[in-house]
């Protein structure tokens, strides 16, 4: 399902700089939103390198949809420190139907723009954002 929402040029540029950790893009995460006119996906918030996964979760609105991209640092089962880029589609059960449909239908456009992100997670409530029980088990499959 396509909604006609496109990814803004700023999202593409900032993502490419983020992957290379250049300049002002030495960040921990991005939160993306669909613009008020429902035409573009744009950067809403960023989190600096000192931020944590918990800060990322707190930056997501309680009752509205968003997309997130985080550079998640963790230890593998054999003790190595590593990190992975993780895309999270936050589509809470408590959000209104219209934004849920808009965000669900526009997700593929953003995923296509974020080349190189291999881990995609859909979350509809906070239990699905729990680092230890929901996120790390998925991420560690790719480590």
UniProtKB/TrEMBL annotation:
Segments forming domain ADF-H: 3-139
Record-level GO cellular component terms: actin cytoskeleton
Molecular-function GO terms, alphabetical: actin binding
Keyword tags: Actin-binding
InterPro entries hit by this protein: ADF-H, ADF-H/Gelsolin-like_dom_sf, ADF/Cofilin
Pfam (any one): Cofilin_ADF
GO biological process, one term: actin filament depolymerization
SMART domains: ADF
Keyword Iron-sulfur found: no
Family as reported in the entry's similarity comment: Belongs to the actin-binding proteins ADF family.
Protein name, per record: ADF-H domain-containing protein
Organism annotation: Trieres chinensis
């Amino acid at each position: 399902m396509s909604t006609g929402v496109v990814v803004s040029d700023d999202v593409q540029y900032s993502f490419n700089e983020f992957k290379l950790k250049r300049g002002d893009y030495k960040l921990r995460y991005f939160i993306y939103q669909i613009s008020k006119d429902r035409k573009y996906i744009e950067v809403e918030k960023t989190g600096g390198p000192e931020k944590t996964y918990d800060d990322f979760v707190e930056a997501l609105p309680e009752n509205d949809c968003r997309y997130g991209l985080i550079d998640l640092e963790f230890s593998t089962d054999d003790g190595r420190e590593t990190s992975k880029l993780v895309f999270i589609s936050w589509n809470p059960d408590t959000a209104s139907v219209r934004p849920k449909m808009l965000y669900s239908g526009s997700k593929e456009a953003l995923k296509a723009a974020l080349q190189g992100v291999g881990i995609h997670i859909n979350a509809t409530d906070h239990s699905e954002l729990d680092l230890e029980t929901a996120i790390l088990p998925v991420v560690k499959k790719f480590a």
